[in-house]
From TrEMBL:
Keywords: Carbohydrate metabolism, Hydrolase, Polysaccharide degradation, Secreted, Signal, Xylan degradation. GO terms for molecular function: feruloyl esterase activity. The keyword Ubl conjugation does not apply. It comes from the Eukaryota. GO terms for cellular component: extracellular region. Residues 1-24 form the signal peptide. GO terms for biological process: xylan catabolic process. It catalyses: feruloyl-polysaccharide + H2O = ferulate + polysaccharide. Its EC number is 3.1.1.73. The lineage of its organism: Eukaryota, Fungi, Dikarya, Ascomycota, Pezizomycotina. This is feruloyl esterase.
Amino acid sequence: MDRRPNFLVALALLVLSCVGAVKGESSAGCGKTPTITGKQYSMTNRPYRLVFTWHQLGGSAQKIVDGKDTSRGGALPYYGLNAIANNSAIFVVPQGLNAGWGNQGGEDVTFFDQLAKTVAADVCVDTRLRFSTGFSYGGAMSYALACARPKDIRAVAVISGSQLSGCTGGNDPVAYYGQHGTSDSVLNVSRGRQLRDRFVRNNGCTAVSETQPSGGRSVKTVYQGCNPGYPVTWKDGSVIFAPKNTWDFFTQFS
Ligand SMILES: *[C@@H]1O[C@H](CO)[C@@H](O)[C@H](O)[C@H]1NC(C)=O
Ligand SMILES: *[C@@H]1O[C@H](CO)[C@@H](O)[C@H](O)[C@H]1NC(C)=O
């Protein structure tokens, strides 16, 4: 983290002790008082999901926390997830070099590795329940992690993404939720579908012919035939559907 010490760990809950979190893979932070500070709300003994929320180009960690990104993708705090997470998740909100995720030489994936390690050492997380999401560049970064760190990420939600942060590896399955507006003029929908199709293949799902919604209609496709534990869901349509769909997708895993 030498070049980029900026990140926020939003403790959507206070993890004073996690002695009850015997299920899953408890991290080293279990049973200790966290020293990373953030918002603290309540304490429970449930295992905590960890959700990485990557900002869009020109965004910032603070804007994700405040829900103040100018475009609709970041218009709700924590991409709208904290509001529906019912204190079951800890959000990690990183901040990119040059306000993006160019991932030159894999530097942003390395940053993720360091963040994941730092957080796991300090707060109580279930290391099997780590997720990643973001809008646009943040979606690209989530995709890059699905490619490069399939063992570390249980599922991604790539919202209006494109291959902007690379894809090292990219041969292993990761549960994949993707969503893209069909009239997106910045990153067209074909670019989002291209990312999705890698995980349709990797996850062993049956490819389907494209549904092309018209007149602003939204179409959700749940792929069939995927290997157990590696679903793929795709939605053509507006970003306003992202929080609920993302959360439903992430919480199918336990
Ligand atoms: C929120 O979590 C608490 C504690 O696990 C649970 O009792 C409650 O039913 C949950 N509320 C909703 C709306 O899911
Ligand atoms: C989508 O964008 C890519 C990259 O800019 C471009 O090559 C491609 O032709 C576009 N596809 C459509 C259907 O507009």
